[in-house]
Design brief:
By secondary structure, the protein is mostly helical. 69% of the residues lie in helices and 0% in strands.
Length: 178
């Protein structure tokens, strides 16, 4: 594992997301989210693949910042960029269509992108359970958990520990939300 390359990705993502905040109740800096996704991969999934961990840190850069495909390839290589692109929503589509596409597209993801997708949904469900946005109703939170389950259910089983953690986070969310 090239730690310097991972730190470069963290620095790149922190810069790209520098003006963004999470929707959570505490408005945490956005960079906390990709760090959490990479941590879940490493600590829960036992993932050591450098490109997967780097792509996890960068997974929202194309979707949520002005980052280009060419920037990612130049800085981190084609494989990292491909993982990021696989998990990137097309923001030109209406939200409802994007959500449906995530479900149908999940079964087509490469193993590396599948790991990132499951870690991302795990992090999001945990964040929504423990620090939901102030304007989200209980029903909207439960709908998100249901939708995330549909996405993950379509993912190939590439890491049982990751799936187990995802299911536990969703179950906790349902229990806490009533």
């Amino acid at each position: 594992m090239n730690a310097a390359r991972l730190f470069l990705a963290l620095e790149f993502a922190a810069y790209k997301h520098r003006h963004q905040r999470r929707k959570s109740g505490d408005q945490a800096p956005y960079i906390n989210h990709p760090i959490t996704v990479a941590r879940i991969l490493a600590n829960v999934g036992g993932v050591h693949d450098e490109d997967v961990l780097i792509a996890a840190v960068l997974h929202d850069t194309i979707e949520d910042t002005e980052t280009t495909r060419e920037e990612l390839i130049a800085a981190f290589g084609t494989r990292v960029c491909e993982y990021v692109e696989e998990v990137t929503d097309d923001k030109s589509l209406p939200k409802a269509e994007r959500k449906l596409r995530q479900i149908s597209h999940a079964r087509e993801l490469s193993p590396g992108a599948t790991l990132i997708k499951i870690a991302d949904k795990t992090a999001n469900c945990g964040d929504l359970t423990h620090g939901p946005p102030a304007d989200w109703s209980k029903d909207r939170l439960l709908e998100y958990l249901d939708w995330a389950e549909k996405v993950v259910s379509q993912c190939a089983t590439v890491n049982e520990a990751m799936l187990t953690r995802f299911r536990a986070v969703v179950a906790e969310g349902r229990r806490l939300l009533g």
